[in-house]
Amino acid sequence: MSEHTGHIVPSKLNWLVFIVLIVATCLTAWIATVDLGQFNTVVALVIATCKASMVVLIFMQVKYTSEKMTKAVLLFAVAWLILLLFLSLTDYSSRYAG
Amino acid sequence: MSDSPVVAEHAEHMEHDRPELRHHFADEEQQRNAASLGMWWFLGTEIMFFGGMFCAYLIYRLKYFPEFAAASRSLSLGIGTFNTTVLICSSLTVAQAVRAAQMGNRKLQVRMLLLTLVFGLAFLGIKTKEWGDKYREHHIPTFDFSAKDLMRDNQHLFGLDKLQNDPQALQKRAAEIQQHSQIFFALYFALTGMHAIHMIVGVGIFSVITWMAWKGRFTPEYHTPLEIAGLYWHFVDIVWIYLFPLLYLIDRRPGA
Description:
Largest sheet of chain A: none
Largest sheet of chain B: none
Low-confidence stretches of chain B: none
Distance between the termini of chain A: 63 Å
Number of helices of chain A: 4
Largest interface: A-B, 55 and 59 residues
CATH superfamily of chain B: Cytochrome c oxidase, subunit III, four-helix bundle
Shape of chain B: elongated
Order of helices and strands of chain B: HHHHHHHHH
Number of helices of chain B: 9
Oligomer: heterodimer
Helix content of chain B: over 70%
Mean pLDDT of chain A: 90
Helix content of chain A: over 70%
Number of strands of chain A: 0
Radius of gyration of chain B: 25 Å
Number of domains of chain B: 1
Distance between the termini of chain B: 82 Å
Radius of gyration of chain A: 18 Å
Structural class of chain B: mainly alpha
C-alpha cells in the first residue's frame, strides 16, 4: 500500500503539529512584550525556526521522503541563505559599531 | 523474447493497469519523488528570492533600529497574531487534504480544500484591512507620508526627550526619522506585498486543485498535483512565519 501512496501522516500528528504551531504563535506574541534585553529577537527567531522546521518535516513530509536529493536541495538552499544573511550581518554590524 | 523483463514490464504498462505510471519511471514512488523534487528546486529559488529582501531588511534594521522599532509598534499585534493563526489553519487543511487523497476519500479532500481557500482568502482580506489602516495613518512611503505619530508615541526611543532644549537638533532628528521610518514601511509593503502575491497565486492554484479533486482526479496511487501544490502552500506559510516576528515584533517591550 505505502509503496503506491507514499507515507500517510496520521491525522493525530497533523493536529498535534497544528496545535503546537498555534501555541508557539501566541507564545512568540506574548514573549515579545516581556523585557529580555538583547534576547527578544533571538527568542522570536528560535520560535519561528522551530515552527518552520515542523511545517517542513511533517506537513511537507521531508521526514518521510525516500528521496535524498530533496533533503540535499533543502539543506543547500538554507545554507546559501544563512551565508548571505550571516556574512552581511558581520559586515554591516562591524561598520556601524565604529 | 517475451521472457525479457523489459518487454514484460512494457507489456504491463500497455495493459493500463497502472495508467498513471509514465514509462520512464521504474515505479510510482520514483515518479512521485521526481515530481516533488522538481518543486523543491523551485522552492530553493524562492528562498533566494525572499532571501534578498530579508537581507535588505536586516541591513536597514541594523542601521536604523529606533525607526524600525517604532514603525513596527504601529502595526497591530492582535491582527498580526490572528492572521498568523489563520494561515496555520490553512496549512493544516492542506495537510489533511493530502491525507484524504492518500486514503481515497474524495468528500473529505474537497471539504479540506474548500476550507483552505476560505482561510487563504480570509488572510488576504485581513491583510487588505491592515494596508487600509496604514493608508489612513499616512504610513505609505512617499505618498503623503508622516512619521509624526511615531515621534509622538516613541519620544524616549528616539531620544527626543533629551533634545527638548535644542530646537535645531530636534528638527534635524525629526527629519531623519521622517526619512528612515519610510524605509521600514517600504520593506513592509515589499515583503507583505510579495507574500500576498504568492497567496493570490496559491488561491488560484488551489481553485484548480479543488476542481480536480471534485472531479475525482486524485487517487491513492496518483495525487501529485495536490501534493506539490501543497508544498508551495506550506512554503508561503513558512515565509509568513518569519515575516510575523520580523515585522510585528521588532521591539514590543513596555517602556523600552
